[in-house]
Specification:
Elements (H helix, E strand, L loop, with lengths): L1 H15 L2 H6 L6 H4 L7 H15 L7 H13 L3 H10 L8 H8 L5 H15 L3 H33 L8 H4 L11 H5 L5 H30 L1
The structure holds fe (ii) ion.
């Protein structure tokens, strides 16, 4: 798996410099302006729990790799309530009526959020347990970029307003290891795979990053308009 992890790190370097993250680091804007993309990611963030529960997890696990996947899903399937908690605290509940909000969530403007969920579901359902670990590793690294960039914005807002942002801030970040829960990078690197498995994993990594890139562009477009 080492080659796959190296590819993920290469991809992560490009991902870190995408326009959304440059926007989030732009100190000429207020922290709130840099967090304006937040409502736009609702569909995916809430769907991500389902991806863990109903797509990645398979009980009972048929091998040790699927067991690892399962352990990871029990951590990652319950972060979404903190997203909603911060949604309220950041003042987005006042945005619009429930019907307008649903129209928005299923509009063309947010299609990359939904495509991300549906494509990940397809990738995962066609993947064996080792390939699922590659999916998780790629997702975790994209998450690490988002959460580490959001952390300083959250800290500034928390200090100024005297609130705790559990999703955007330290509370959540400390639970996001950037890797499969319960495994470190070295352990994952040691996972043996044959040639065809490796080719498939490398293609999976490409697709996961491409999907997340399109997603970040959608979030940025929303933040700016
Ligand atoms: Fe999370």
């Amino acid at each position: 798996m080492k080659r796959v992890l190296n590819k993920i790190l290469e991809k992560k370097q490009t991902y870190t410099n995408l326009p959304l993250f440059q926007f989030m680091r732009d100190s000429s804007l207020t922290e709130e302006e840099r967090m304006a993309f937040y409502p736009c990611m609702a569909h995916f963030i809430l769907s991500f729990s389902d991806i863990n529960k109903y797509m990645l997890r398979e009980e009972p696990a048929t091998d040790a790799y699927q067991q690892r996947v399962n352990i990871h899903t029990y951590e990652d399937d319950h972060h979404w309530p903190w997203y909603l908690e911060d949604f309220t605290k950041l003042g987005f509940d006042r945005l619009c009526s429930p019907t307008s909000w649903m129209r928005f969530l299923w509009s063309d403007e947010t299609r990359q959020n939904r495509i991300l969920t549906y494509r990940l579901a397809t990738l995962i359902s066609n993947a064996n347990a080792i390939e699922r670990i590659a999916v998780i590793e790629a997702i975790e690294e994209t998450g690490n970029v988002l959460f580490s960039t959001m952390l300083s914005l959250a800290k500034a807002i928390e200090a100024r307003r005297g609130i705790q942002l559990r999703y955007c801030g330290e509370f959540h970040f400390s639970l996001e290891s950037g890797h499969s829960v319960g495994s470190d990078r070295d352990e994952i690197a040691e996972i043996p795979m044959d040639e065809s498995n490796q080719v498939r994993c490398l293609a999976i990594v490409d697709e996961v990053f491409a999907l997340f890139e399109a997603w970040t562009n959608e979030l940025l477009h929303y933040a700016k308009h």
